[in-house]
Amino acid sequence: MMSLAILFLLSAAPGGWQTFTNSNFIADLCGDDSVLNAATLGGVVILETKPEIRVRHHFYHTDGLGVNRCLGIARDPEGNLWVGTDGAGLAVIPADSVRARLYRAGELPLRIRAVAVDSGRVLLGTEQGVYVVELRGSPLNFDDDRVEHYSFARVRELLSDRVLAIAAGPAGYWIGTNQGLTQVDQEFSRWRAFRRPLGDSVSAIALLSDGRIVAGTELGLVVGDTGGLVPIVTFAQAKAVRDLAVTGSSIYLATADTLFQVDSSGTMVPLLLGDIRSLCAGAVLWAGLGGNDEWGLGLRYLRSGQSWESYYFNGVASGMVSDCALGKDGSIYVGHHSSYISRIKPDSAVQLIVSPLSWAVQVRCDSRGRLWFSHFYPGGLSVYDPDADTWGSRQLGSGDRNVVQAFGLDRHDTKWVFNKSGSVVAIDSLGREAEFYLPELVPPPGGNYEFAFDSRDRVWVGLTNGLEEFDYNGTLFYPGDDRHALHSEGLPASEVRSVAVDPQDRVWVATPQGGAMWDGSRFQVYTTSNSRLLSNNLYRVRVDGGGRVWFLSDLGLSIFDVATGSWTNYTAQNSGLIPNSQSLTGFYTALALDDQQGVAVIGTARGVSVFSYAPEPDSGVSGLKIFPNPFVFGVHRGVVVANLPSDARVRVYTLSGMPVAELPVSPGLGRAYWVPDKTGSGIYLVVASSRQGIITERLALVNRGQ
């Protein structure tokens, strides 16, 4: 089976956040013959090119960029990198630093498309005109800088506020807009406008060795100086000019489909086909390719006398994440809307695996460590065995029967499917298949709904018309004792996007208008009006081993500690969560928890965020903490036993030594959770044991009615 192993350098942020993106859409390049700097839609990459090509560092939003979507980059004489971002303004990467700094937030537009550096100045092209940062001799001391803003309203010769390109020359600066070309001297006192030098939009500018400039428009190339511009290339049909580079007497022209070499007479020779977005020319000609926002086409480079070669930056197969799961080996498996699966290994390597089926929608791990993927179109299930590095697949029939719209995997390794034909299909661990028709279930228009399972093996599935409860009474192939019911009354919205079950068999759901908990008889609703939930627009819900409920919404992550009633919220502003800088609908797509490691994985439309929520390791159980203590029935929800080592077992006894309960422990969270709803008032012993020893604490349960 074909696979591609790629070394991936993790980016760790304060608070245990890590970022994985696809950085092969390369928006801009700068550098020299030994170091190439790339602004990509997945961050900034510094690439050493001698003696061999290797990544020196990959910068993400968690490294100070603010966002991962970077559009322009330039290097100053001191080696500092100035980065124009799409969503965080201007970022600066000091020379030889592994941290970026945002430049004076609030003073510049959030979207900066073009960046040029002159001695003591940084020029920025934005949708609101040109910004000039006067560095005053200290490029990394932002406090003494002066920022000037030039707009069409202020300078009519600018022609438009939509600036597409900037170049710094010996006699001043050239500014390309969607209405033509503007030249200004270094004192910004004399402005000259060149409306429609050949076409309307001047999207690329480069300096020639004789001090003249070459500018690219949708109709061709012009060459000239302040005395005038003359066409040297005229396109037969309009083309999108992406970038220009000059070395010696050659001009390199990047368009949306071809890279050309242009000589002084205007003769164009095609060198490379592809969506060329950026160029850097020297001893090696570098071409950064585009693609789409989710995944890019990487780098191409041409050494003198050789053929074109390719280089791809490390990362996940696509920024668009459909689902994710953690394997038994500690790897993270990421599904995409393609045939590629990304496997992020514990040693920080990323392996791209080719699935036999396309469009993986959901991912689940079985008890043997195999990964099961559900597929929308053309449908079916696939399974990957990491130990053997082999794939298998299971077709459910033809047409709509094979299209999976809801998927789940229970503790017996039975795969549960709701297909587009409207039936529930269960495939047990031996491959035997049972089919159930539940008339109240309606096939939804999409295919990303979920099954969940409680300790009694009841099956729960959320669809567009509510929460379905299905009890097959432990007899999968005998339908006579089956029971099923649809619960919708009391839900904040009829659509149930996600389902999870807590240790007390309470069922939690995520809907477009809030969360809810089914306690067996009714729904308890959680919204922004009665809780600290970030948003009512919820996509996923999960429950960790400590009984905490995780809600993933359009604004971020909300964690509800049921025992204490407290909420913790994580957004792109207060954590390392990937920001939604483009304000995309449905940006946060997936959520998976691993209680053994204390790791949460959040899938987005632009990559993967990994959050380590495990507490600092403890040397033993000497710091055992129980709260609330005393526990009051009717006031408190549950008891938390915290500060546990990962191998702890926790039991509750009466004072006479009679066993009362053994509590499930979350190794990653270092705590156990207990709801003593069927236990009487009194004093109980909580005993925690591990390899480090045994410790006993007393717990008081109080019933105010007694």
UniProtKB/TrEMBL annotation:
Classification lineage: Bacteria, Bacteria division WOR-3
Domain of life: Bacteria
Protein name in the entry: T9SS type A sorting domain-containing protein
